[in-house]
């Protein structure tokens, strides 16, 4: 069975990013929409990313942001991937020449496969609990008995933590899990113990 990948999202501090790297996390998300409580300045994110060891993906997250801002962030940060969390169209998402993930607002989307079909160029999808127009990173989960029916890679997000990620993986077998609130002491401030526990819980499912 494939190893389930891990993405930590909403990184704002270098010490958290470095610990995530040591723990073997596959991807780190940096939130560049000012709608977020986890907004990080692109210069600060660039510094964090440059200190990371090779082969860890950096993901730049936006939500209905101005193209000029997105281009500015890309030219400074040089992320591996983009993540769009709002009402961006497929054309919007494809316009930057980088692989991208599209967030799926599960509270509003009943047919996930049809939604995904509208984004043929997506590298993958991030299924999150919130409704259309709402920010992610709320620590809320969706109904994990819903089969998304996707034949492309997707990340499970929303309300996962060390205590429930094992159950989530067993039920859904996502390509990856994405967590923000579940490893934090407050928005954007990651907790070392919660990060360690989360990675251990995911690794335990990889040996089952
Ligand atoms: O994290 C945010 O503040 C945020 C704001 C606006 C749009 C998206 C946002 N986060 C998206 C993510 O990828 C989160 O990691 C995902 O929603 C899971 O969050 P959580 O339920 O807190 O683990």
Automatic annotation (TrEMBL):
Molecular function (Gene Ontology), one example: phosphoribosylanthranilate isomerase activity
Biological processes per GO annotation: L-tryptophan biosynthetic process
N-(5'phosphoribosyl) anthranilate isomerase (PRAI) domain mapped to chain residues: 7-200
Keywords of this entry: Amino-acid biosynthesis, Aromatic amino acid biosynthesis, Isomerase, Tryptophan biosynthesis
E.C. no: 5.3.1.24
InterPro entries with a match to the protein in the record: Aldolase_TIM, PRAI_dom, RibuloseP-bd_barrel, TrpF_fam
Lineage of origin: Bacteria, Pseudomonadati, Pseudomonadota, Gammaproteobacteria, Lysobacterales
Organism: Dokdonella immobilis
Keyword Amino-acid biosynthesis: yes
Family to which this protein belongs: Belongs to the TrpF family.
Reaction(s) the record says it catalyses: N-(5-phospho-beta-D-ribosyl)anthranilate = 1-(2-carboxyphenylamino)-1-deoxy-D-ribulose 5-phosphate
Involved pathway(s): Amino-acid biosynthesis; L-tryptophan biosynthesis; L-tryptophan from chorismate: step 3/5
Protein name according to UniProt: N-(5'-phosphoribosyl)anthranilate isomerase
Gene3D superfamilies, per the entry: Aldolase class I
Class of this enzyme: isomerase
Isomerase listed as a keyword: yes
């Amino acid at each position: 069975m494939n190893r389930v990948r891990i993405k930590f999202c909403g990184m704002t501090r270098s010490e958290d990013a470095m610990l995530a790297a040591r723990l073997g996390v596959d991807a780190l998300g940096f939130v560049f929409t000012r709608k977020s409580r986890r907004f990080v300045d692109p210069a600060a994110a660039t510094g964090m990313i440059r200190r990371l060891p090779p082969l860890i993906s950096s993901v730049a997250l936006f939500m209905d942001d101005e193209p000029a801002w997105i281009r500015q962030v890309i030219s400074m940060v040089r992320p591996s991937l983009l993540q769009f969390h709002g009402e961006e169209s497929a054309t919007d998402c494809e316009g930057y020449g980088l692989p991208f993930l599209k967030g799926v607002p599960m509270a509003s989307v009943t047919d996930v496969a049809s939604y995904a079909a509208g984004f043929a160029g997506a590298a993958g999808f991030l299924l999150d609990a919130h409704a259309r127009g709402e920010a992610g990173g709320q620590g809320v989960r969706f109904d994990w008995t819903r089969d998304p029916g996707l034949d492309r890679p997707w990340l499970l997000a929303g309300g996962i933590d060390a205590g429930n990620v094992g159950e989530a993986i067993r039920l859904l077998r996502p390509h990856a899990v994405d967590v923000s609130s579940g490893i934090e002491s407050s928005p954007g401030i990651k907790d070392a113990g919660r990060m360690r526990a989360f990675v251990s819980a995911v690794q335990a499912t990889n040996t089952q």
